[in-house]
Amino acid sequence: MRCLVTGATGYLGGRLVPELLAEGHRVRCLVRDPARLRDHPWRGAVEAVAGDVTRPETLDGPFEGVDVAYYLVHSLGTGPDFEAVDREAARAFGRAAARAGVRRIVYLGGLVPVDVPEGRLSPHLRSRVATGRALREGGVAVTELRAAVVIGSGSASFEMLRYLTERLPVMVTPRWVDTRIQPIAVREVLRCLVGAAGLPDVPETDRVFDIGGPEVLTYRAMMQRYARLAGLRRRLIVSVPVLTPGLSSHWVGLVTPVPGALARPLVESLRHEVVCAEHDLARWIPDPPGGAIGFDEAVTLALRRIRDDEVTTRWSSASLPGAPSDPLPTDPDWAGGSLYQDVRERHVDASPQALWQVVEGIGGRNGWYSFPLAWSVRGALDRLAGGVGLRRGRRSAGRLRVGDSLDFWRVEEIEPGRLLRLRAEMRLPGLAWLELTVTPDGEGATYRQRALFHPHGLAGHAYWWSVAPFHAVVFGGMARNIAARAEALREIRAEAR
Predict the structure, then answer these.
(1) What's the burial of 325, exposed, middle or buried (CB within 10 Å: 0-12/13-18/19+)?
(2) I need a surface site. Which of 87, 112, 363, 408 has the fewest CB within 10 A?
(3) What is the dihedral of CA 57, 63, 65, 70, to 10 degrees?
(4) What are the φ and ψ backbone dihedral angles of 345, each rounded to 5 degrees?
(5) What's the start-to-end Cα distance of the chain, in Å?
(6) 71 close to 90: Cβ distance less than 8 angstroms
(7) DSSP secondary-structure letter at 178?
(8) What is the pLDDT of residue 314?
(9) Residue 20 has pLDDT above 50, yes or no
(10) From CA 322, how far away is CA 324, in angstroms rounded?
(11) Which of 258, 273, 38 lies closest to 155, judged by CA?
(12) Ramachandran region of residue 297, left (φ > 0), alpha (ψ -120 to 50) or beta?
């Protein structure tokens, strides 16, 4: 069976692809930029095609010969009009699937309360419902799976739960901490998604199915159980009525890596009780012999992956690209106009391999090797402006691949041992890149660092000149400290011999 997967660069899509391959399906990935898949271990086993669900003219070719199409994308956190963007994208996707004769669309939506009118749902859940309806407009059968909080290493919901619990031993919380929720392990979600490809073509499978784990818990209970499983002391949680979802989303954005633009719709959805009203999918996709994975086991598995540095995808894996006309720093003569540069170069008395190890380990817990306060302040300002800030960290402590988020940067290009190019995703009046290169130099190596900025309008030029006085400290210190760290690593290795 040929399956088309959208969202392959995102959290669930990136995990679904290898599961479908393991079941013997042929997989085609629809992505804006196929290069984003280059470093995934399964890349050679799939067909990657360029397309964008928000651009209907790009959708006809990718559906050719497809039996089942997975719709795993959304524009949550991109702005106030995300509901309209999601609805139009789903409508275009459903119609393109119908024109190509696709047998089934499988869509993962959000679990909704049965007793709340659609108009009173949170914008996030309302959009999920509307997306499913729009997909059906083309006439293709749609199997819509609805899940609540997904528990798995790297999911946005799990990151919220993890950081709130770990960082706040005492919490004054909104009332939604006592809302009943039916969480589900990411492995269970993937099992249902894979199984949906083989559902029979009968009217009974062209419908909505609720999926959830075996337990119904409050958010308070989930935090206390997470604390126990993580070896933390019991948390003191006091709920008060004055914290609205809007206010509490700012609180979540302050404490966790999840930016406010994404935290707000997720938090607003927590005011609804989301419990499965049926378990009909088990008729076609039976539960595992031992039963579905429970909350404690799901958290334990997630913590193990984090500890072992085996998080395959994260919520921040998906990103919004720049406009197609945005120039790249490799364009000849800088086709896009003005370009400011800060260039630093140093000889390093260490092997290229040692230097590259330091370069590839930049960001996250290792920091940026210079003036930590300045980086922290810049991250905080970005969060206040609605950006992602520094708290996204990195997927893996020691390995990077194209498309990875790295604090408020995105890995745009990586040539192992030689080049790392990062594209800025902080709020800026322009486009910015940070390019780090390693070149063999006799018995040592040369480290070259380029910070590039393409300003947008007068505000962009003013921004560059306002921060230029700090470059000697920030970028100069970075180059010196990266070189020093590589030389120290050389000495450690020499002593180990």
Answers:
(1) exposed
(2) 87
(3) 180
(4) -140, 135
(5) 53
(6) yes
(7) G
(8) 60
(9) yes
(10) 6
(11) 258
(12) alpha
Beta strands 409-415 and 405-406 are: antiparallel
Q: What pLDDT score was predicted for residue 495?
A: 65
Q: For residue range 389-411, what is the model confidence (pLDDT) as tens digits?
A: 777 788 888 889 888 888 889 89
What b/e readout covers 210-224, taking b as 16+ CB neighbours within 10 angstroms? bbbbbbbbebbbbbb
Return the ∠ at Cα 22 (arms to 103 and 191), rounded to 5°.
Answer: 65
In this structure, what token pair is assigned to residue 464? 């560059």
State which amino acid sits at residue 22: A
**pLDDT tens digits, 449-496:** 999 998 888 888 899 999 999 999 999 999 999 999 999 987 777 666
CA angle 219, 222, 228 (to 5 degrees): 145
Cα–Cα distance between 347 and 355 in angstroms, integer? 11
Q: What is the DSSP letter of 120?
A: G
Q: How many CA atoms lie within 13 A of 403 on its CB side?
A: 24
DSSP state of 169: S
Rg of the chain's alpha carbons, rounded to an integer? 24
CB 88 within 8 A of CB 96: no
Lowest mean pLDDT across 153-157, 229-233, 367-371: 153-157
Nearest one of 89, 9, 94 to 55, comparing CA atoms: 89
Euclidean distance between CA atoms 492 and 497, whole angstroms? 9
In tens, the pLDDT along 171-220 reads 887 777 888 999 999 999 999 999 999 999 999 999 999 999 999 999 89
Residue 427 in tokens? 């709020």
Alpha-carbon distance of 9 to 305, in angstroms, equals 19
- What pLDDT score does 245 carry? 60
Q: Which of 270, 276, 274 is nearest to 175 (CA)?
A: 270
* Token pair listed for 103: 């047998």
Tokens 């679904």 locate to: 16
Count of CB atoms within 10 A of residue 32's CB?
A: 18
- Of 100-109, 157-166, 238-247, 371-380, which gets the smallest average pLDDT? 238-247
Please name the amino acid found at residue 435: E
Euclidean distance between CA atoms 277 and 255, whole angstroms: 33
